[in-house]
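Morning, I've got a small favour to ask if you have a moment. Here's the protein in full, and shout if anything looks odd to you:
***
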Amino acid sequence: MLAGTAEKAFRFSELEGTMATAGFNVIGKKTLNDEDRPDQPEIRYFNNPDKEQAEAIAKFMCLRLSNPVIEARQYNDPSARPGYIEIWLGR
């Protein structure tokens, strides 16, 4: 999980618990604020087989964050292992 501000990162522990209950392993949480980070919440996946799972996480996050528009987007990063998905809470 990643966020651009401490205010947004405040939700990490709540969301991590919810994701763990749903069977997901959250392997890290960071606060990053640079130009490459999305302004709004976004789910990033890097391998085609992860698309369906990323879309399911995006739908879940829409409900959890009361935000009707959270998209799953594919990014190119050859070093990303299958199953690696990023949850961005925005800047």
